[in-house]
Amino acid sequence: MDAKEISRAVIGRLPRYFRYLGDLKDQGIERVSSQDLSTIMQVTASQIRQDFNHFGGFGQQGYGYKVLYLYEEIGKILGLDHKHHLIIVSAGNLGQALGKYMNFERRGFIFRGIFDKNPALYGKIINNIAVRPMEQIGAFIKENNIDIAVLTVPRVSAVAVAEMLVFEGVRGIWNFADIDLKMPDRIQVENVHLSDSLMKLSYNVNNSTGIDH
Fold it and tell me: Which residue, of 30, 59, 79, 124, has the greatest Cβ tally within 10 A?
């Protein structure tokens, strides 16, 4: 099936499947049923089977799924069988925190460089990588085969910086700026709004049972 025919909801669940299957693999569990996954993930067994059927199924009736095989196949669907080279644009608090988060490398996302326009940050070491001036970013992207940029710049400069990154050759932008970026169709953008997640949590807290206002 063409990837464009698969709903964003299904694609959105794949990283969760991958993460939970990774936990099962680490526990030495070799097989899992859709019902077992349903209990772990709080997704119906029927939904799990429907999701997997978009990609060929992976299991057989009454036999369940081989955990390692399913983990590896979902990893391939997510493109995790290839390494992705990343740069971080802006070495502020969020940029530095992301640069120090080692779990990305386990998934094949390799940080190659960190850039900022503040001279006071030049040379600062973050996870064995020195912060570089923005003026070096174009050559660095080409020399290091960078395909994804992590954008943690302020909202006011996000569009201009993103357009520059596209011009220099990146194919994907993980955007933490407080604005939804709209790039050419060939560029993949994941807009991340941390405040949206917090507001969803606020809604759930305020609408859960037992609240005393």
Answer: 59
Q: How many CB atoms lie within 10 A of CB 212?
A: 3
In a domain, 207, yes or no: no
What is the total count of domains within the chain? 2
User: Can you give the C-alpha Rg of the chain in angstroms?
Assistant: 20
Mean pLDDT, residues 193-205 taken together: 88
**Which strand (E) or helix (H) includes residue 95?**
helix 93-100
Residue 104: Cβ within 10 Å count:
16
Give the pLDDT band (50/70/90) at residue 54: confident
Task: Mark whether 130 and 102 lie in a shared domain.
Answer: yes
- Position 63, amino acid: Y
User: What crossing angle do the helices spanning 45-53 and 34-41 adopt, rounded to 10°?
Assistant: 110
In a domain, 48, yes or no: yes
**Domain check: are 20 and 98 in the same one?**
no
Q: For residue 209, tell me if it sits in a domain.
A: no
For residue range 170-182, what is the model confidence (pLDDT) as tens digits?
999 999 998 999 9
- The answer to whether 81 touches 71, Cβ cutoff 8 Å, is no
Assess if residue 113 is contained within a domain: yes
Q: Judge contact between 32 and 65, C-beta under 8 A.
A: yes
pTM attached to this predicted model: 0.79
Task: For residue 175, count CB atoms less than 10 angstroms from its CB and return exposed for 0-12, middle for 13-18, buried for 19 or more.
Answer: buried
Q: Which domain holds residue 39?
A: 3-77
